[in-house]
Design a protein that fits this description.
elongated; four-stranded antiparallel sheet; Jelly Rolls; 9 helices
């Protein structure tokens, strides 16, 4: 199965409708897709990856291979509850902790901040396009995610080190993401990411030309009343390479109250007889307008 590819350049041309439909289908049917021509500076993206790889080699690699999980794998005594990853988490919004993380170089901090500033604009644009496809107000998702200081934004920086026994351990166990919109800058050489769809695991290839990989999280599923679903995914450990993953989460603020958008709810709290009365005159018409009529009649 091919991963849907959304070309943002086509949003400004005659293929806008086709591109919007592709985005909607990707969010509805799979919950994962790639974006190209997204407007983020590709030199900046390359620099982020280079500096993260450098930080891992200088500050994290040795301690990882001396850790209990690595030693347990050598003895083949590792449990299924372990993840073969080396990671740290950076908060960006509403408050940053980047200067509190040990051993991050000034260059990495400044480069990451510049990258995140551009990525947040992409996340906001993507949320607006989703709202358009769902028939919601342009800023509905952003406002739903906002606390007093806006949405919460953070990045998990991870390396999935070369693994001598990948058959014994996951890089990262199966899960859905708790938040909203996840934008991933990933390795362009080493595979490992897989998503679950239609009863099968779909392998996500390494990202070429610095495309951004996107998946939807649990809170977007709630806001969209299940139209856009979060999807189970995992990372497979690799025997031949070390994979980089820089996943940024555009999430609700901790104080945000999350609920389905009223426009996307089925009608509720109505008498069945009232529905039957409407059904009698619209039986052979599409059910959508019938539901909308019931919403209007019994909204409270």
């Amino acid at each position: 199965m091919e991963v849907p590819l959304i070309d943002f350049e086509k949003l400004d041309g005659e293929k806008r409708s086709e591109t919007m439909a592709l985005l909607h289908q990707a969010c509805e049917k799979g919950g994962f897709f790639q974006i190209e021509n997204h407007g983020i500076d590709k030199d900046l993206m390359d620099k982020v990856k280079d500096l993260v790889n450098q930080h891992y080699e200088e500050n994290m690699k040795e301690s990882f291979y001396e850790s209990e999980i690595a030693k347990g794998l050598e003895k083949k005594s590792i449990t299924s509850y372990a993840d073969w990853e080396s990671s740290f988490f950076i908060w960006h919004r509403p408050n940053s902790n980047i200067n509190e993380i040990p051993n991050l170089s000034d260059d990495l901090c400044k480069t990451m901040d510049a990258y995140i500033n551009q990525l947040i604009k992409l996340a906001e644009k993507l949320s607006e396009l989703m709202c358009e496809n769902l028939g919601l107000e342009k800023d509905y998702i952003k406002e739903a995610f906002s606390g007093s200081k806006g949405p919460s934004v953070g990045t998990k920086v991870a390396k999935y080190p070369q693994c001598p026994h990948p058959e014994l351990v996951r890089g990262l166990r199966e899960h859905t993401d708790a938040g909203g919109i996840i934008l991933l800058l990933q390795d362009d050489q080493v595979p490992g990411l897989q998503f679950h769809k239609d009863g099968k695991w779909v392998e996500i290839p390494p990202s070429k030309n610095n495309s951004i990989f996107v998946n939807t999280g649990d809170q977007l599923e709630v806001v969209t009343n299940g139209k856009y679903k979060s999807t189970l995914h995992r990372v497979i450990a690799d025997k031949n390479g070390s994979r980089i993953s820089i996943a940024t989460f555009y999430n609700p603020a901790g104080e945000a109250i999350i609920s389905p958008a009223p426009k996307l709810l089925y009608p509720n709290h109505f008498r069945f007889q009232d529905y039957l009365n409407l059904y009698g005159s619209t039986k052979f018409a599409d059910k959508g307008p019938r539901f909308e009529s019931m919403k209007k009649l019994f909204a409270f």
